[in-house]
Amino acid sequence: MKKIAINFTDFWDGFNKKENYFYRLLKTKYDVVISDSPELIIYSCFGNEYLKYNCKRVYYTGENIRPDLTGCDFAFSFDFSNNKRHFRLPLYSLYIEQDRMYDKLKFLKKKDELRRIWEKKNKFVCMVVSNPNAKFRLDFFKELSKYRTVDSGGKVFNNVGGRVACKTEFINSYKFVLAFENSSFDGYTTEKILEPIFTDSIPIYWGNKLIDKDFNPKRFINYNDYGSVEKLYARLVEIENNPDIAIGILSQPIFDMDSNGFENERKKVLNIFSILIESKKRPIAKSYKSYIHFLKVFIRKFKKKVLKLKNN
Fold first, then answer.
1. What are the pLDDT digits (tens) for 14-67?
2. Distance of CA 66 to CAs 20, 28, 47, 59, Å?
3. CA quadruple 49, 54, 34, 10: dihedral, nearest 10
4. What are the angstrom distances between the C-alpha of 112 and each of 242, 247, 254?
5. Bridge partners for 180 per DSSP
6. Going from the N-terminus, what domains does the chain have, and what CATH number goes with each?
């Protein structure tokens, strides 16, 4: 195996440089070494440390942020983009790989088993949220709560006696789970819709208007299909009172695409890295574009400081 020196920077808190999608994928083809002098840096959107590296740069974000291709040689995000230096890799793909969910994607429970699972779910609807700034999601919580109590196990609107220790265990008892993104943008899909699906609950989803391109629309409730909270609540009650409808939803495949889709996706991502690693092309960090990018970063930071001063 060819040895490659890489590193990671500007990722979320708790990110493990050796326990992540990219490291595990590269290890299937290369002898990967984490180095302070890498030939490839993989970075995200939570800082600007990547600017210190003048090697090949790969950007990844699972957030609702557009990639700036003046700063990297290649970018992965949720965007539907035709740019040759971009590949769509939504956050839920990393979530599936991290929790080794490939086999579960291929396996559909029988209806008798799903009926037993559904009958054991003795609670109506819940939410587990820590971000207090997602206004649309919080407004929906308030409106739905006018019809029936929505149990909140997260930091926001907590009404179950404190934050739950394990989200998966908590939502497992509920028939319905709020699966709202922090914000809405075409293609922006995180792991939120998958969490209730893997506990055999029914997600109530809002966020990506093109969600049907990724997930089977028969397997969840799409907020955008209803003109009001009242109509959506009526649908929840209908499902609650008709187990056959619920089982019909739960028995749907998660994805419309075949179960090999994620393996094919991984092969494409690895091929992109291989081409970049083997390429003799000068890294963008050593081109004139790096100066343009640095200036853009400086302006963004300056604007943030000015805005902060105005708010103080």
1. 999 999 999 999 999 999 999 999 999 999 999 999 999 999 999 999 999 999
2. 22, 29, 15, 11
3. 20
4. 15, 9, 18
5. 206
6. 2-95+262-311 (3.40.50.11650), 122-250 (3.40.50.11660)
